[in-house]
From TrEMBL, chain A:
Residues 10-115 form the Rieske domain. The keyword Iron-sulfur applies. Keywords: 2Fe-2S, Iron, Iron-sulfur, Metal-binding. Residues 484-569 form the 2Fe-2S ferredoxin-type domain. Coiled coil: none annotated. This is Rieske 2Fe-2S domain-containing protein. Residues 252-356 form the FAD-binding FR-type domain. It holds the Pfam family Fer2. The keyword Heme does not apply. InterPro entries: 2Fe-2S_ferredoxin-like_sf (IPR036010), 2Fe-2S_ferredoxin-type (IPR001041), 2Fe2S_fd_BS (IPR006058), Benzoxazolinone_Detox_Enz (IPR052353), Beta-grasp_dom_sf (IPR012675), FAD-bd_FR_type (IPR017927), FNR_nucleotide-bd (IPR039261), Riboflavin_synthase-like_b-brl (IPR017938). One of its GO terms (molecular function) is 2 iron, 2 sulfur cluster binding. Signal peptide: none annotated.
UniProtKB/TrEMBL annotation, chain B:
This is Aromatic ring-hydroxylating dioxygenase subunit alpha. SUPFAM superfamilies: Bet v1-like, ISP domain. InterPro entries: Cholesterol_7-desaturase, Rieske_2Fe-2S_sf, VanA_C_cat. The keyword Repeat does not apply. GO terms for molecular function: 2 iron, 2 sulfur cluster binding; dioxygenase activity. It comes from Devosia sediminis.
Length: 569, 298
């Protein structure tokens, strides 16, 4: 039977021993090259052996522990999702588009790594695998068709005890179960399992090695006499159309997903930690350091929380929530009513606070609950051995959250508890020092602290583009003095928006149902595609590049600079 | 069976050897567009190129005895030939004729990748910190700033200007990292010319050319030209520098798949830094080049 590119069977593609610490193993199955690597958390990844950017093999890339880095341009791909988290040529941008490498199913069992060409068939252990402590033999590559290799293995059996031929190129001869990995039309790897660990491992390995070497020589001599089979011709899947059009910026209206609250705990005085995971144990979408998610609360509100996770950590998202009494029903609902086991709707991660990894010095300044995105950043920098300092200001020792997570970082982490306002300012100034080329500072904390650090940075000569922060609230005064027309393309309707009234309000008055939440340009719920006209952005949701693209807007606060806007509503 | 090259490719002038390195009276063999060629130089120093039959590398030959010859042109220190009907002119590099420049061929390196992939690599700045570490770039300075790209209708070439990159060792005289400015030209489907700020004279620019000899659709030889304003470095130094650079590119290019350059925009994932590569791919597509590329399905 000829090999098929769409063969749904699972085959062993490597030994567990082929994946030592921080190694990338090059494998092949059914004509497709694979990059196989184990992350520091133990997870094994099986990806198409090709960076999506310029087609360079990922097997020559660098295993950074939780991310794989391409040798050619340093693009980084996350453990589990294979999503791109960083493009060094554009260090200030979050890779907004979903660049994700092709990956294959994976299972580690019996000392072997198993994979399949597609997800059509769920993994099932081979028949009779139960109840044994399997021992993997050394693999033997053979330049012959997988079919001939199976036949050759079957001929190893004595006449009175014929071999057992099982589906998916498995042959049982005596006590040994042989698996034939179909590498390509003319190449296979024999992988054998013994049901128990032998008394003398080395002698046993040597015995089977000799047996297989002789078999290989016979098979290759026979193969040389036949015409070589045509190699399989796998196709590289095309990337999506939006990835192929280069500079256009499209702001995806993120899908929501349902997660379960796995764990809820008091991380510090006044800070509650939440661990959110997929209901079926699948990994969550790729995120970048500084990213946040929208959490849809039981009372209908939407609130943003930064992820604290480190690189390639997609089994769960961990957020920190401030349990403040003054909270207007947002965080309060989470803290008081949501329990472990509850389901929540969250958005895919979004990043308005991207971390550049091209700094010679990175200073992270956190105030209170503002530690959350900076913890994530510190973890990414830590894993890549990039220099950083993290300064964490809290009211007192008891209110310092994520202590154990901060404790395992290798960089310079300093806690400052109970300092008065002036002392904080002096400390920040001392920490930052005069601006030097390729230095960057990231601040997250209360509004007053943000302003203070910006002021200190300006006094010390730091340029704007070296000072990074993120707003979760829109404190700007909204200028609603303009008047203009909006044409709603899909609703075939033109409305006049007078001064003093928002686009959102005008649309509602005209009987349209439009989703919204914070209505202050911070949450992103009312994001709308702009087809024509020039937008007067007044929100804090879109980043600079997105605003400049003039392709989308928040209808709750933003208005028009032109007389007319055409919206995709 | 290799496919016949498209007529545009067939009628181009192609580089085949550094003229000075062609032995007088001895045969040298090479491959161009899947066609076996033999080359030599006559006693007058002029190169002669013909379709190879049973000649072997190193055979003695009298160039005058070769009657069926391919068209030949010498330019920029190299020998060029054509398997079809050549254009009258080869693209211009006016700087080459300036009297005070050191012009040199810096060797020829075989690469198991298509010629257009090698051109694209030459246009690319994003790989400097990762492939040419501590020479043309170094982490953490990885940013490719916005630059301009145009396809000049009049000269029929791709032109990228205002390309800037921070380089740790842009020149021997450089102390610490400095930002260098590049201009790239692609005046020929398989050739590119780079202009780089010159450390010795602010008003002038060093010129580096890369001429690719497409041997097969998936193999090429890179021939390098340097035309420098440099009164101190020796030719050996300058050659060694360029050979180091290409020695670093070679293993990366040979791990690129597919080996032919895909022209369908959806086959790979470009970013803003790849503007010049995108323009180059479109230009090849519009010209109707099919050799060494995977044409866009129509």
């Amino acid at each position: 039977m000829p090999l098929s590119l769409s063969d749904p069977n699972w085959y062993p593609i490597a030994s567990s021993e082929d994946l030592p610490f921080r190694h990338v193993y090059q494998g092949q199955l059914l004509g497709r090259e694979l990059a196989v690597w184990r992350a520091d958390d133990g997870n094994v990844n099986v990806w198409e052996n090709r960076c999506l950017h310029r087609g360079v093999r990922l097997s020559i890339g660098i295993n950074e522990g939780q991310e794989l880095k391409c040798q050619y341009h340093g693009w980084r791909y996350a453990n589990q999702s294979a999503g791109c988290t960083y493009i060094p040529a554009h260090p200030a941008d979050a890779p907004a588009r979903r660049i994700e490498n092709r990956k294959y199913p994976i299972r580690e069992a019996f000392g072997l790594i198993w994979s399949a060409a597609n997800d059509d068939q769920a993994y099932a252990p081979f028949p009779g695998s139960d109840g044994h402590d399997w021992f993997a033999l050394r693999p033997m590559p053979v330049n012959a068709t997988p079919e001939d290799v199976v036949a050759g293995l079957a001929r190893l059996a004595p006449d009175d005890e014929p071999a057992d031929l099982l589906p998916a190129l498995v042959v049982r001869v005596g006590g040994v179960t042989w698996f034939v990995q179909p590498v390509d039309a003319g190449r296979a790897v024999i992988r054998g399992l013994l049901p128990e660990k032998p008394a003398d491992e080395l002698a046993t390995l040597r015995h089977y090695n000799e047996l297989l070497t002789k078999l290989r020589d016979r098979l290759e001599r026979a193969a040389a006499r036949k015409p070589a089979p045509e190699p399989l011709q796998p196709v590289f899947e095309k990337v999506s159309a939006d990835l192929s059009t280069m500079p256009d910026i499209a702001v995806p209206r993120g899908n929501t997903l349902t997660v379960v609250v796995k764990r809820k705990w008091q991380s510090a005085d006044g800070v509650i930690g939440f661990e959110l995971a997929d209901r079926d144990g699948k990994h969550l979408p790729t995120f970048q350091p500084g990213a946040h998610i929208d959490v849809h609360l039981p009372n209908g509100l939407v609130r943003q929380y930064s992820l604290t996770n480190g690189p390639g950590d997609l089994s769960r998202y961990v957020i920190g929530v401030k349990a403040e009494s003054a909270s207007k029903g947002g965080s309060k609902v989470l803290v008081e009513t949501v329990r472990e086991g509850d389901l929540l709707q969250i958005s895919e991660p979004r990043n308005n606070f991207p971390l550049r990894r091209d700094a010679t010095r990175t200073v992270l300044i956190a105030g209170g609950i503002g530690i959350t995105p900076l913890l994530s950043m510190a973890r990414f920098l830590d894993k890549s051995s990039l220099p950083y300092e993290l300064h964490y200001f809290t009211r007192n020792d008891e209110s310092a959250a994520f202590s154990s997570e901060l404790g395992v970082l290798h960089g310079h982490v300093e806690r400052h508890a109970g300092l008065a306002r002036d002392a904080i300012r002096a400390k920040v100034a001392a920490v930052m020092g005069p601006y030097q080329f390729a230095n960057h500072v990231y601040i997250c904390g209360p509004g007053a602290m943000l302003e203070m650090v910006q002021q200190v940075a300006a006094d010390l000569g730091w340029p704007d583009e070296a000072v990074h922060f993120e707003y979760f609230q829109n404190d700007k005064v909204i200028d609603s003095s303009s008047a203009f027309d909006v044409e709603l393309a899909r609703s075939a309707m033109t409305l006049h928006v007078p001064a003093g009234k928002t686009i959102l309000e005008t649309m509602r008055e005209a009987g349209l149902t439009v989703p919204s939440s914070c209505e202050q340009g911070a949450c992103g719920t009312c994001l709308t595609t702009v087809m024509e006209g020039e937008v007067d952005h007044q929100d804090v949701y879109l980043n600079k590049t997105e605003k400049a693209s003039n392709t989308c807007m928040m209808t709750c606060v933003s208005r028009a600079k032109s007389d007319r806007l055409v919206l995709d509503i | 069976m290799p496919q016949a090259p498209d007529p545009i490719t067939r009628n181009l002038w192609h580089v085949v050897a550094a003229t000075d390195e062609l032995p007088i009276g001895l045969v040298e063999t090479t491959l161009l567009l899947d066609t076996r060629l033999a080359l030599t130089r006559g006693s007058d120093g002029e190169p002669v190129v013909w379709l190879r039959t049973d000649e072997e590398n190193g055979d003695e030959i009298d160039a005058d005895s070769v009657l069926e010859r391919l068209p030949v042109r010498t330019a920029y220190g190299y020998t060029w030939t054509c398997l079809g009907t050549p254009d009258a002119e080869l693209f211009p590099i006016p700087e080459f004729a300036e009297p005070d420049r050191v012009n040199m061929s810096c060797g020829s390196i075989g690469i198991h990748v298509s010629a257009p992939r090698a051109v694209e690599n030459f246009l690319d700045m994003g790989h400097f910190p990762y492939v040419h570490t501590d020479i043309l770039g170094s982490e953490p300075h990885t940013e490719v700033k916005e630059y301009d790209v145009e396809v000049s209708e009049e000269r029929d070439e791709v032109l990228a200007t205002k390309c800037r990159f921070i380089q740790p060792m842009a020149a021997k005289s450089a102390v610490g990292a400095m930002e260098v400015e590049y201009v790239y030209r692609v005046p020929h489907p398989f050739c590119s010319v780079l202009y780089k700020s010159c450390p010795e004279d602010e008003t002038r620019r060093d010129v580096i050319g890369i001429f690719l000899q497409p041997m097969t659709e998936e193999r090429c030889r890179a021939h390098l030209l340097q035309s420098m304003i440099d009164s101190t470095s020796t030719i050996t130094d300058l050659r060694r520098f360029q050979q180091t650079i290409f020695g670093q590119d070679k293993p990366i290019l040979e791990n690129q798949y597919p080996k032919k350059l895909p022209l369908d925009p959806r086959s790979e994932t470009p970013i803003r830094a790849d503007k010049s590569a995108i323009a180059y791919r479109r230009w090849l597509s519009q010209k109707g080049i099919t050799y060494g590329v995977i044409p866009q399905a129509s």
